[in-house]
C-alpha cells in the first residue's frame, strides 16, 4: 500500500452538487418527467434550453436563498417561473405552483445519481486510510438524503450551511469539515466545481482548493490561472501527496 508522505494528517472534503452528485441531470430529468404533458409541444431544443435555464439560475435566486432573502422553495419556484417566462408560457397561480413543487419534490430524489468517477476514488482513499467528507451549500439533512439516494452512504462526515450558520466561501464552513475529519487544514483537499466559491474559497480558508472542471474548456480555465484544476475525481488520490 502507498503511504501518505511524512505521516502527516491529511484528508479530502468534497462539494456535493455537480461534484459527487449529477444534480443538473437529476433536475433536468425531473423537469421533463413532471412537465411532459404540459409541455408536449416542446422540441428537443426547447427542452435543452428550458432545463439549462432552470439549472443555470442566471438571475441568482439560489444565492438569494443562501443570503437569507428567499426560502428554499421560493428560489426553486422563481427559477422555474423564469424558465416558463422565457418560453412564453403563462404564469402559474398559487395552486399550480404548489402542485408543481410537490411533484418536483417527489420525483427529484428518484433521479439522484453519483458521477461514475467517485466510487473508485473513495475505495482508494479508504485503502490508504485517508478520511473524507463533504461540505455543502445546502442544509445538512437535505444533503444527507441526497447522498444516500445517490448511493454514497459511506460519506458520513457532512457539513451543511445550518451546521455552522455559514455558507461557502466563509472559512467557518470549510474549517468545520476539517475539524470533523481531524486533519490538518493545509493538508486537506477541498474539491468542488465552482472556481470561486469552492476552490478559491477553500484556499482562502487555509485548505488546498481543487477546482473540478469536467468540460476541459481551456478558455474557462484560463480565467483562473492560479487555481489547481482537475477534469476528473480520479486525480484526487494523486493530489494527496502520495508517493
Automatic annotation (TrEMBL):
Q: Which domain of life is it from?
A: Bacteria
This entry's Gene Ontology molecular function terms read: hydrolase activity
Against Pfam families, the record matches this protein to: Hydrolase
* Cofactor annotation: Mg(2+)
**Keyword list, A-Z:** Hydrolase, Magnesium
NCBIfam families according to UniProt: HAD-SF-IA-v1
What PANTHER family does the record tag this protein with? 5-AMINO-6-(5-PHOSPHO-D-RIBITYLAMINO)URACIL PHOSPHATASE YIGB (PTHR46470:SF4), N-ACYLNEURAMINATE-9-PHOSPHATASE (PTHR46470)
Q: What is the name of the protein in this document?
A: HAD family hydrolase
Lineage, broadest ranks: Bacteria, Bacillati, Actinomycetota, Actinomycetes, Micrococcales
